[in-house]
Write a structure and sequence with these properties.
A 5-stranded parallel β-sheet has the order 2-3-4-1-5, with helices on both faces. A two-stranded parallel ribbon has the order 6-7. It is α/β, with parallel strands linked by helices and about 350 residues long. It has helices spanning about 5-10, 25-40, 45-50, 60-70, 105-115, 135-140, 155-165, 175-185, 185-200, 210-215, 225-230, 235-250, 255-275, 280-285, 300-305, 310-330, 335-345, and strands at about 20, 50-55, 80-85, 120-125, 145, 170, 205. It starts with a helix and ends with a helix. Strand 3 (about 80-85), helix 5 (about 105-115) and strand 4 form a beta-alpha-beta unit. Helix 12 (about 235-250) packs antiparallel against helix 17 (about 335-345). It contains 17 helices and 7 strands.
């Protein structure tokens, strides 16, 4: 069965009883496990009664099956997820053809024949055993299996493009290629960088290659988000180093840098005011435009905002506006301009 077919059956609330997820692409596997919970146990308050998160490192197969045999409480389904499940099925001498009379997996074979349909049982692992040996032969023939293989570069480009589209953005072909070329095919890392791009581009519908260069940069170290973090942390030397590297790699980088830093300080103003009113982190994240995974970074904004008084924030924004004006009015050395600016706006 394909990923799309499983997603369709889950959306219709018609899951199979037992799934076997495996493969090197851990991020996609983890997302599917989260999706199982969101789909079949959307009421978080009921999960303590109906969700078991198990590990093959700690249990035996019979323990897992005992959890799967339980019935749901005030819900239609139970969800039992066993990670590192390959550990459950290790044998010193695996049987290649016939099962033994005192086979340690007798209870597993019986459960595969007649599973509890009120429980969604998922075995999750990196690498299964040989499909021609028991108990793997039985697992592959009597469960719904799906391999999450590491994506090739072309597939990763297609995947990140589709993910951007689900977030309401169009990721240009050059931008998608640049992102994968910089980051590689690690989907967790790509997702993290996409969240930064979503925050950086704001209301823009398109994400262009220049946006990728500004956020990801020529390396994960020298980009606008690392610059913001260094400024927010009060690290003038490191902030100056990042800014100078960005200017050196792209002479036109100063204008989007000024824009993004001005927006950053406006976000800090809002953060400071809301923090003073003791509003919660989710409300602050929404107010400053950190949505989805981007909300994770709200703690950095709160920490940075505490280092500034209202006067210092106003002065920082004024310094940014003046610096941009100076670049348009007179010919000035970019490096000197940036060094002076960072000194003025860093707490």
């Amino acid at each position: 069965m394909t990923l799309q077919q499983i997603e369709k059956s889950w959306k219709a609330i018609k899951p199979d009883a037992i799934y076997l997820f495996y493969g090197e692409e851990e991020f996609l596997r983890s997302e599917m496990l989260e999706r199982a919970l969101d789909t079949f146990l959307p009421d978080v308050s009921l999960r303590s009664f109906n969700y078991d998160h198990l590990s093959g490192n700690d249990l035996k197969i019979n323990d897992v099956l005992n959890h799967a045999k339980n019935y749901p409480v005030m819900a239609d389904m139970r969800v039992v997820i066993c990670r590192d499940a390959e550990k459950l099925f290790k044998l010193r001498e695996p049987s290649k053809s016939k099962k033994k009379e005192d086979d340690p997996f007798d209870l597993l074979y019986k459960y595969l024949e007649d599973p509890n349909r009120s429980t969604l049982l998922i075995f999750d692992m990196i690498k299964p055993g040989p499909k021609n040996q028991h108990p793997w032969k039985d697992l592959f023939s009597k469960t719904t299996t799906l391999e999450f293989a590491t994506l090739k570069e072309s597939a990763a480009i297609e995947w990140i493009t589709e993910r951007a589209q689900r977030s309401g953005k169009r990721l240009d072909t050059k931008a998608a290629n640049a992102l994968v070329n910089h980051i590689g095919t690690d989907l967790r890392a790509l997702t993290s960088e996409l969240e930064k791009l979503l925050a950086y581009t704001g209301d823009k519908e398109n994400i262009a290659a220049k946006d990728v260069e500004m956020t990801v940069g020529i390396s994960p170290t020298y980009n606008i988000f690392e610059l913001q973090k260094a400024i927010g942390a009060g690290n003038k030397a490191y902030a100056t180093e990042i800014a100078l590297q960005m200017i050196e790699s792209d002479k036109g980088a100063r204008y989007p840098m000024f824009y993004q830093l001005t927006r950053y300080f406006e976000q800090l103003e809002i953060t400071r005011e809301m923090s003073a009113r003791r509003e919660d982190e989710n409300a602050i994240a929404q107010a400053i435009g950190l949505f989805g995974g981007g909300a994770y970074f709200v703690k950095d904004y709160i920490s940075a905002a505490r280092k500034y008084s209202p006067e210092k924030l106003d002065n920082a924004i004024r310094a940014l506006v003046n610096s941009e004006f100076d670049t348009r009015r007179v010919k000035i050395d970019d490096s000197l301009l940036v060094e002076k600016l960072i000194a003025e706006i860093t707490p």
